[in-house]
Amino acid sequence: DLLFSDRSIIDGAAHPKVNNNIVGTMFPTYFIEMFENILHFQKSFFDIYIYLPIEFPMYSDEVRPNDELYRQEIDNEILRLLRKHVANFYTVTGTVTQRTEQLIQILHHHV
Hints:
Number of strands: 2
Largest sheet: 2 strands, parallel
Strand content: 5-15%
Helix content: 55-70%
Oligomer: single chain
C-alpha cells in the first residue's frame, strides 16, 4: 500500500511554535509538545519523509500570507523537527523537473 501526503504532523508542530516565536504566545507549551509527541509516534507509520527546502519564490494568493520571514521560519522549524525526530529523511532540491526525477528515484528505491 502506498500513501502520499504533502503534509504531516510536522506542519502541525511547526506552525504553532513559529507563531509563538513571531507573534507571541498564542499556543500553550503543552499543545506544541503534544504535536511533537504525536510526531514521534506517527513517524513509525511512514516509510520515508522527503524535505523540499525553499528554492522558489512564494506563490501569492488569498489563502497564504505573503511573508518570506514567516515562510523561512516555518522551513527552519520543519527541518529542526525532521532532524530531531526522523533519523532518515531525504532532501530533494533543484528545479521542478530535477525534484521530480529525484522523487522518482527515491520511490523506485523504496517500492
